[in-house]
Design goal:
There is one protein chain. The strands form 4 sheets. Strands 1, 2, 3, 4, 7, 12, 14 and 16 form an 8-stranded antiparallel beta sheet that branches. Strands 5-13-8-11 form a 4-stranded antiparallel beta sheet, with no helix packed on it. Strands 6-15 form a two-stranded antiparallel sheet. It has one domain: q2cbj1_9rhob like domain (Jelly Rolls). The longest helix is centred in the first third of the chain and has 17 residues. A hairpin with a 5-residue loop joins β9 and β10. The chain is 15% helix and 22% strand. The chain is α+β, with helices and mostly antiparallel strands. The radius of gyration is 19 Å and the shape is globular.
Length: 330
Amino acid sequence: MPSATTPPPPTGGLTPEQLAIFERDGYLIIPDALSPITVQALLAETHSLLDSFPLDTHPLTRFSTGEKSAHVGDAYFLESGDKIRYFFEEDAFDPTTGALLKPKARAINKIGHYLHALSPPFAALLDPALNPDLLGAAVSGGPGKIESHPAAIARAIGFKDPRCLQSMVICKQPEIGGAVPPHQDSSFLYTTPPSAVGFWYALEDATTENGCLSFLPGSHRWAPVKQRFVRAAGGGTEFVDNEGARFPAGEEYGEQMKITGEEGEYKMGEVKAGSLVLIHGNLLHKSERNTSQKGRIIYTFHVIEGEGTTYDERNWLQPPAEGFTRLFRD
């Protein structure tokens, strides 16, 4: 089987119809992209990670979307690019005493950002040689079929040298899972020109009740990357105006693509466990609070183009010593 550093056969990871939908809407839902055995293996790994991290030495770093407090920016967060670290929900703590109100496994917002290299079950999604029995996709007709491999999908949407730069488990905990306001992934993972694409795998059903994603279809073509999330000069993080390219290269992008008065409405993205959602880096998307009794665990990683783009040294996430993980190179 191919490794993450060898190109897959030129067998296309998307049908022409799927590619057309992604180009039109800026996102694509692929049901059954992971087999049930893969989903269960990744959930088991997630629960093992949640149960095993030591609480007594944790700095209790909270992940914030910026709605209630400043975006996270401590050293624990900024140095997580080559580690597996845990970030708490804001509402997991008593606002008066600061005491943790939930068991730790029910209090974590996300785990990141190097699962794709340090956790064998998650790494196997990018490198099936690590665990060939783990991969399997009904959409591709059986276990280990290269058509379902992220490298084949990246190739199909035009990547020449895709690099995985971050990965996360997002838990969206019952009762306290925070809302995420409209945003663009390229604001956080900026290249010149923008090139980020998210691979978002549902490990549990994502519904309206437990805070599924919603998308503004077509906004990737007309919504510029106006701001960037960067390391602040005095420490921490901040949003700054984007003075660089605001769209990927191509005539199909630009503010002139927006039809005045026809911005449209957000569309809910309810999906079953095992589904993959591809998300263009310029696409506006969001999620609501999870006030239900049902959690919503997902796994996501992001890919940027390594050929013909520049990764900015101000970005909050900086590459590990060995560089970002390569899926393949033409």
